[in-house]
Design goal:
CATH class of the largest domain: Alpha Beta
Radius of gyration: 25 Å
GO cellular component, one term: cytosol
Keywords: DNA-binding, Transcription, Transcription regulation
CATH architecture of the largest domain: Alpha-Beta Complex
Number of strands: 7
CATH topology of the largest domain: H-NOX domain
GO molecular function: DNA-binding transcription factor activity; transcription cis-regulatory region binding
Protein name: Transcriptional regulator, AraC family
Structural class: alpha+beta
Largest sheet: 5 strands, mixed
Oligomer: single chain
InterPro entries: AraC-type_N, Homeodomain-like_sf, HTH_AraC
Length: 339
Amino acid sequence: MSKHFRIPTRLAALLQESGIRVSAVLQRANLPPGLLDQPRALVTTEQLFALWSAIAHVSPDPAIGLFLGTAAKPEHFDPVALAALFTSTFGDAMRQLSRHKQISCPEEIALKITDTESSIQFRFLLADEEEPEVFTDLCFAWILSIARHGTGSPLSPIRLELSRESSTYARALERHFGCPVRLGSTRNALVFRSSDFALPFVTRNAELLSMLAPQLDEQLKQSLGEENFPERVRATIQKRLAGHRPKMHDIARELHMSSRTLQRHLQDAGYTFHQVLEEARHQLARHYLHNSLLELNEAAYLLGYEDSSSFVRAFRSWEGVPPGLWRDGQRAKTVTTQP
């Protein structure tokens, strides 16, 4: 699973087309001014939510998410959506999306299928808060756009469930999706008839799907492998943490790769070398303090710190308390749990 979202390259043009100043959006979201000019702009979940909250604030249209989530032409879709369009039915398309969505971002599409109804939900796997309403609108408009392009018909769900208690543009939502909108629901979900999942796609193309799907499967395989790459780096760092702080080129040589390759793999997994180094130290610090009688200055040396005060500052940033106090707390827990 990728830990970053890729910003669509067309977003800046679509915002300008909607009369929204890109600079105003990025400034309000506290994001770099040239972010949307990059050919491969990556953001964290927190940054993505800040971006869409800013778009909602700057836009004069409260239903802007519906416009930005609706593709006018199939060629405007990303490769994952294109592969979905090449499948045989609406249901196959949704299953294809569900399988490959996590290649590009820490987000999953959850399908719940019964005899009569089938619901589609988006889950943001690294989110600490609920996604902005404008982004929920965009996600469901994107699904509807795929469904209508694929079936070649004005297909509509039977209802749209939204957790928001109220909406100033509920009528616009109903017009866009062509169905009732149920506010104050326990979930955000787009609900279709289960029979709709059997509708054939006029865009199906077995030849193109056979070319594109294996590439996506390979990307998914690599993505799952890259998810474990930081763990390999962390373990290698811990083996070399013995009185000195290993450099990136030391770890890269140990893993039989260049520093640039190591850095790129970590970046693809959403990490920096410094982050993995600190995680390695944190794990070992907890182990040393909990399972040994090492003095603090000895633990500091083994973790590659120049002195114990540097170790104390780092440990306080990790656990919120000094290492000595943390150790005392762990020992107290052990005593209270003994029979």
